[in-house]
Design goal:
It is a single chain. This protein is α+β, with helices and mostly antiparallel strands and about 190 residues long. Helix content is about 35%, strand content about 25%. The chain contains five helices and seven strands; from the N terminus they run βαααββαβββαβ. The chain has a seven-stranded antiparallel sheet. α1 packs across α4. The chain is globular.
Length: about 190
């Protein structure tokens, strides 16, 4: 069984690109509707299951769906086992057609916290589109050995969630710096 990866996506761009991408996400279905998701973003016409080899090659995960919207241009996307790297690149290619300065940034966490990370796709300082992903596999949940009834469980969990977000934000910022410096993975046109 696949681990769930929670991906917190933010599209940074003008109103036109945010609205256009939000429309694609709104048409992408929800839980267990990977076919609607890929149809919305890839122009495919899958009516049922999507072949796993196609998903791995084009999305980067064996399933993907919209969990919920967070705000304009911000979405919670669920995927299997991995952050969907190929999808983030596809999303960028669609978005950059509308806003040449658009940036895609993602914080992600595996349900086991192995890994957590940050992903960015944007143009580097020379205007070349590139991406970078940074991951951390050393996160330990301090509540793993606690019971729900433990006196400090809730506070410990809240502190851990704050620390986890700080780690993902730091990794995402490092990915931003990597792309901007020209050391990111160049996107093939």
């Amino acid at each position: 069984m696949a681990n769930n990866v929670t991906n917190y996506l933010e599209i940074i761009g003008n109103d036109d690109v945010v609205n256009a991408m939000d429309t694609l996400f709104e048409n992408a279905g929800g839980y267990a509707e990977t076919n609607k998701f890929v149809n919305s973003f890839y122009g495919t016409e899958y009516e049922g299951g999507v072949p796993h080899d196609w998903l791995f090659d084009n999305v980067g995960a064996k399933w993907i769906y919209v969990e919920n919207d967070i705000d304009a241009g911000s979405w919670n996307i669920q995927s299997a086992n991995y952050t969907p790297t190929e999808f983030w690149i596809q999303l960028y290619k669609l978005a950059v057609e509308i806003d040449p300065k658009v940036e895609i940034q993602v914080k992600f966490q595996d349900e086991s916290y192995e890994p957590v990370g940050g992903f960015v796709v944007k143009k580097d300082h020379e205007g070349v589109p590139a991406w970078s992903m940074e991951e951390d596999y050393d996160i330990e949940d301090p509540t793993a050995d606690m019971d729900w009834e433990d006196e400090d469980y809730e506070e410990t969990q809240m502190d851990f969630m704050d620390e986890l977000d700080d780690v993902m934000t730091s990794l995402m910022n490092y990915a931003h710096d990597t792309v901007w410096s020209g050391e990111g993975n160049k996107i093939e046109e």
